[in-house]
Automatic annotation (TrEMBL):
Top EC group: ligase
Subcellular location: Cytoplasm
GO CC annotations on file: cytoplasm
Keyword Nucleotide-binding assigned: yes
Functional summary from the UniProt entry: Part of the phosphoribosylformylglycinamidine synthase complex involved in the purines biosynthetic pathway. Catalyzes the ATP-dependent conversion of formylglycinamide ribonucleotide (FGAR) and glutamine to yield formylglycinamidine ribonucleotide (FGAM) and glutamate. The FGAM synthase complex is composed of three subunits. PurQ produces an ammonia molecule by converting glutamine to glutamate. PurL transfers the ammonia molecule to FGAR to form FGAM in an ATP-dependent manner.
Alphabetic keyword roster: ATP-binding, Cytoplasm, Ligase, Nucleotide-binding, Purine biosynthesis
Organism whose genome encodes this protein: Marinibacterium profundimaris
Subunit composition and interactions: Part of the FGAM synthase complex composed of 1 PurL, 1 PurQ and 2 PurS subunits.
Protein name per its UniProtKB record: Phosphoribosylformylglycinamidine synthase subunit PurS
Pathway: Purine metabolism; IMP biosynthesis via de novo pathway; 5-amino-1-(5-phospho-D-ribosyl)imidazole from N(2)-formyl-N(1)-(5-phospho-D-ribosyl)glycinamide: step 1/2
């Protein structure tokens, strides 16, 4: 079974990588981009029967810094 965890900085947390992406796109002529946020996607191969609560615990303990990041879990 596969699970996909998407980790993003929380709203209000400065995202310098996202800002660099926005500026770079502007310099390439993509002037319509007014903001960008950068995050990470983690794909996990988990044993059958692993539930979303267990994956959430993985996020809380290791995969996300919950002080400044939020996460979304998709079981595929």
């Amino acid at each position: 079974m596969k699970a996909r965890v998407t980790v993003m900085l929380k709203e209000g947390v400065l995202d310098p990588q996202g800002e660099a992406i926005r500026q770079a796109l502007g310099s390439l002529g993509f002037d319509g981009v007014t903001g960008a946020r950068q995050g990470k996607v983690i794909e996990l191969d988990v044993a059958p029967g692993t539930d979303e609560a267990q994956i959430g615990e993985m996020c809380e303990k290791l995969l996300a810094n919950t002080v400044i990041e939020s996460y979304r879990i998709e079981v595929l």
